[in-house]
Amino acid sequence: MGKISFLNPEFFWLFLLIPVAIAWLFWKRNHQSATLKISSLQGFQGHTTFWARVKPFLGVFRLLALSSLIVAMARPRTVDISNKTKTTKGIDIVMAVDVSGSMLAKDLKPNRMEALKRVASDFVEERPNDRIGLVVYASEAYTKTPVTSDKAVVLEAIKSIKYDNVLQDGTGIGMGLATAVNRLKDSKAKSKVIILLTDGVNNAGFIEPETAADIAKQYGIKVYTIGIGTNGMAEFPYAVAPNGQFLFQMMKVEIDERLMQSIAKKTEGKYFRATSNSKLAEIYGEINKLETTEIEELKFYDYDEKYRSFVWLAGFLLLVEIGLRNTVYRSFI
C-alpha cells in the first residue's frame, strides 16, 4: 500500500459511522425476523443448522460493503512519475591545475596532487549538466581534456594527472590561465568559469598572469583562484634518489596570494586558500554552490485508478446479503 495514494482522503472520516452502524445492527438484531409466541420450545430443541450459524454474518456483509464504498470514494490510485530534465542555461568550466614538482608536498594527505584529484573528481560528478575541460601546467601548459559533457572522459583525465617530465618544472600561472581562456573564449554558454589552482609563485612562462586575466575579463570569463598549501613549513621534494624515489625536506610554503586575489577580483571571481584536505573540499563545494545551472524539469504523471475493485466488492457483498435475505432467510410470517 506504500505506493497507493488517495485523491479524496477526507472520505475516510465516514469510517466514524461504522461503530454507529454496528450499534444499530446490534440493537435491531431481535427485530429482523418475525416472531411467533408458543407455550413451550421443548419440541424445537435440537441441532443448529449451518444456515442458522451464518445468519448473524449478514450484517457483517453490509458493514464490509459500506467500508468498501468509503474506500472507493477516497479514490485510491497508484501513480507512475517520469521525469525529463532540460538544461536551459549551462555552464562551461575549465579546471587549470598546477602539476609542478611542489604539488608533491605532503602538507595535504597523501600529497597536494592526490588530494586535489579526489576533490576535483567529486566536483565533476556533482556537475552532470555542465561541460568541463582540464588544463595542466607547470612552466608550460597544455589542454589535457577539451570542454566536454562526457564526464567519464574528464574523470579519467583527472585520474591520470601526475608529475612527470612532459612539462618542464616551474610554475607558469599565466601560461595555465591563458590556455584555459583559449578553451573558453568561443564558448556560447551562459556562464564561463575557470578554476585556477596553484601552490607557488609565478616563475616561468612567457605570458604574464595579469595579461591572461585581462584577456579572461575581455571574454567574460570568471576566474576562481585557489592557493593550495599549509601556512608555514611543509615537506617538499628536492631531489631524486638513485632508486627513483623522491627525497623530501622541510621548506617554507610560498604562494603569491596577492596575485591570485588580483586575478579573481579582476574577473569577478573569488580567491580561496586550501590549507588542508577538508578545506580544499569545502572550497570546491562553495564554488559548486556559487555556480548553479538553471534546469527545467518536466514531470509526467500516469495515474492508475483502483477504486473500481472496491465498488465491485461492495456491490457483490450487497447482492449476497440481499439474495440470502430474500431466499434462504425469507420468512413466511
Structure in words:
- This protein is of the alpha/beta class and 333 residues long.
- It is 36% helix and 26% strand.
- The protein has helices spanning 17-27, 50-54, 58-73, 112-125, 151-159, 173-184, 209-218, 257-266, 277-290, 307-325, and strands at 4-6, 76-89, 91-98, 131-137, 141-148, 191-198, 221-228, 233-240, 246-252, 271-274, 294-305.
- A six-stranded mixed sheet has the order 5-4-3-6-7-10, with helices on both faces.
- Helix 4 links the parallel strand 3 (91-98) and strand 4 (131-137).
- The chain is rod-shaped, with a radius of gyration of 39 Å.
- The model has no long low-confidence stretch (mean pLDDT 86).
Keywords:
alpha/beta; 333 residues; 3-stranded antiparallel sheet
Question: What secondary-structure arrangement, pairings included, does this model have?
Answer:
Layout lengths: L3 E3 L10 H11 L22 H5 L3 H16 L2 E14 L1 E8 L13 H14 L5 E7 L3 E8 L2 H9 L13 H12 L6 E8 L10 H10 L2 E8 L4 E8 L5 E7 L4 H10 L4 E4 L2 H14 L3 E12 L1 H19 L8
Parallel strand pairs: 3-4, 3-6, 6-7, 7-10
Antiparallel strand pairs: 1-2, 2-11, 4-5, 8-9
Helix pairs in contact: 1-3, 3-10, 4-5, 4-9, 6-7, 7-8
**Terminal-residue CA separation:** 48 Å
| Helical proportion, percent range | 25-40%
Low-confidence runs (pLDDT<50, min 5 residues)? Answer: none
| Strands, count | 11
Average pLDDT, all residues = 86
Order of helices and strands: EHHHEEHEEHHEHEEEHEHEH
Q: Helical element count? A: 10
**Derived structural class:** alpha/beta
Strand percentage: 25-35%
Q: Return Rg in Å.
A: 39 Å
Largest sheet: 6 strands, mixed
Provide the spatial order of strands within the biggest beta sheet. Answer: 5-4-3-6-7-10
The shape, in one word, is rod-shaped
